[in-house]
Amino acid sequence: MTITISAFQRSPDRGRGLARDMRVRWALEEVGQPYEERLVTFQSMKEPAYLALQPFGQIPTYEDGDLVLFESGAIVLHIAEQNAGLLPDDANARARAIAWMFAALNTVEPQIFDRSLCQILERDQPWFEPRMQSLEKTIRVRLGSLSNHLGAAAWLEGAFSAGDLLMVTVLRRLHGSGILEEFPNLAAYVARGEARPAYVRAFDAQLAVFEAASAK
Ligand code: GTB
């Protein structure tokens, strides 16, 4: 049975790998699992057939035989648990790697994502500047803590793990903001993630979807 994941037929990021199917593609590439794509439009993802797979009408979903999963973090965790390579064998180290997955999604991603939304949706509002300043202040606090933990290490907890995979996808959203460069070890960490062959394959796959849609 081939795994199927959902993704935007025409991603609003124009194939820059910022939509959340990217992290699922990357995880599947890391563990060497082939997959197929269920490409959706903003209209089709709100129809009953898709809502049966994803109650909120969002991408990504993951289908493997009888199993249908949603939430990118849960999907990456499932992939990491089912395959070798994304979580350590030692129980304590495994728990720590999973803690970093939650940290990426719960502690670091919210302000970074809100900053992107604010930039897109609130640029003309009178509160735009103070709101951006406030979000960026919190982001810098979070990145400072993360930078201190990472120090000179290559990855957050020993070998590359699903925690790094999620953290890198979250931090990538800061490209172009100049904030990441204020923390050179984090900028290098993101570059290290983006240089992984599995990352490159995943990025190219999602870009190919956007380019095929644009060529029509
Ligand atoms: N918590 C869920 C998860 O992690 O799976 C969140 C999923 C989610 O936000 N999906 C978004 C979606 O389907 C796409 S990734 N949105 C449609 C909707 O809610 O109707 C978020 C996203 C959107 C656009 C860009 N972009 O243009 O750069 C980047 C990321």
Overall strand count: 4
Distance between the termini: 30 Å
- Average pLDDT rating: 97
Gyration radius, rounded: 17 Å
User: What is the H/E order?
Assistant: EHEHEEHHHHHH
Structural class: alpha+beta
Shape: globular
Instruction: Name the bound molecules.
Output: S-(P-nitrobenzyl)glutathione
Order of strands across the main sheet: 2-1-3-4
Range of strand content = 5-15%
Query: Unreliable stretches, pLDDT < 50, 5 or more residues?
Result: none
The largest sheet, given as strand count, sense and whether it forms a barrel, is: 4 strands, mixed
Q: Roughly how much helix do the residues carry, as a percent range?
A: 55-70%
Please supply descriptive tags for the structure shown above.
216 residues; alpha+beta; 4-stranded mixed beta sheet; 8 helices; 4 strands; binds S-(P-nitrobenzyl)glutathione
